Amino acid sequence: xxxxxxxxxxxxxxxxxxxxxxxxxxxxxxxxxxxxxxxxxxxxxxxxxxxxxxxxxxxxxxxxxxxxxxxxxxxxxxxxxxxxxxxxxxxxxxxxxxxxxxxxxxxxxxxxxxxxxxxxxxxxxxxxxxxxxxxxxxxxxxxxxxxxxxxxxxxxxxxxxxxxxxxxxxxxxxxxxxxxxxxxxxxxxxxxxxxxxxxxxxxxxxxxxxxxxxxxxxxxxxxxxxxxxxxxxxxxxxxxxxxxxxxxxxxxxxxxxxxxxxxxxxxxxxxxxxxxxxxxxxxxxxxxxxxxxxxxxxxxxxxxxxxxxxxxxxxxxxxxxxxxxxxxxxxxxxxxxxxxxxxxxxxxxxxxxxxxxxxxxxxxxxxxxx
Amino acid sequence: xxxxxxxxxxxxxxxxxxxxxxxxxxxxxxxxxxxxxxxxxxxxxxxxxxxxxxxxxxxxxxxxxxxxxxxxxxxxxxxxxxxxxxxxxxx
Lengths: 370, 91
Hints:
The complex is a heterodimer of chains A (about 375) and B (about 90).
Chain A: E1 8-11, E2 14-15, H1 20-34, E3 41-43, E4 45-46, E5 55-56, E6 67-72, H2 79-84, E7 89-93, H3 106-118, E8 128-131, H4 134-142, E9 149-150, H5 166-172, E10 175-181, H6 190-203, E11 207-213, H7 218-230, E12 237-241, H8 245-254, E13 257-260, H9 269-276, E14 281-283, H10 287-293, E15 298-300, H11 305-316, H12 319-339, H13 342-357
Parallel strand pairs in A: 1-3, 1-6, 2-4, 3-5, 6-7, 7-8, 8-9, 10-11, 10-13, 11-12, 13-14, 14-15
Chain B: E1 2-3, H1 8-28, H2 35-44, H3 49-63, H4 68-90
């Protein structure tokens, strides 16, 4: 029986301070460490601040782990080398935005094409395939990675650090604030939200504003800015650029609704953030959004800006409807919490290591021996 | 216009309210569905000439057909940026 402490390393091609995959790797590392399981994070491109320990990728540094979790979210030029290593591996698939959304950017389009093509390389080379949503698992099944399982993307069983008072908040000002959080990029379709805002401001004495929080694809951001100016909405649309965690809390606290017109999402974490902060959600039920929303939220049935505007205005003017939809969002949060929590991360990883090491005679604290 | 899977009875109420206000506006404004597009066309005339040209290409790229030259411009931009970064790194 192997009594060495367990170590599970993680790899993603790039790691920065703010991206969703790096946050996920940090969550996994922290959950495993709490359970006495060690492991490091490796990346080829490291842009993370020094406070986040990301080691440079080097095959020789991986030898001391029981398992390597390979996060895959776009093309990974280091993948062939990685798959040749003898260390047991598991895939965590974060979804790859299809290349047709990057027709304006050859580099991003080729990374997307490469990433999707590389999914086929994992077959026969990994112990287990995971996706961070059922939608992502279904994409893995399509490339032959059968029995893919959902891996927790978030920890929804820990309390939020900040809570706001949503009902008071909504009655404070005469202006209604709509919020979307996500990179300004074609598949997130913020242009439709700006066009919807134009119609909303034709409707009644209630004024609407739109806050678009997130980083930018430069060309698409320029398009959105010029579209905003053409529609005379310069003072009603705010492009925040990248925001800190505190600033993001501030935006959620001021939002009367979260609006999402995304055409492609693997999971859409901001939907969950809105549920946690009791912000009513309006969304197009496409791809991963449908699953994350469950039966909660308001769903657009039309891509017509004028109709979306009337639907939002009628809904936000009906306080009973908002209350009942918020209750449904709370229930969905509980449902999501069953699959997305720290315990589940530890259980899934431990089960894989157990398969590799053999049966567990007993557990020792603080380090786990299997 | 809207679906509320958790509360079908609310869905009917909201749908009716939205449809009613939409019908009123459509009656009040001729060509209501195209109002936004007309506003974009007239509003873009107020942009500076260079911005108007940029907007024309970007709108075509992101709302309709692909503008072939854009991807080459983006690639050139990436090349310039990475070269500058490399040179700065060496300096």
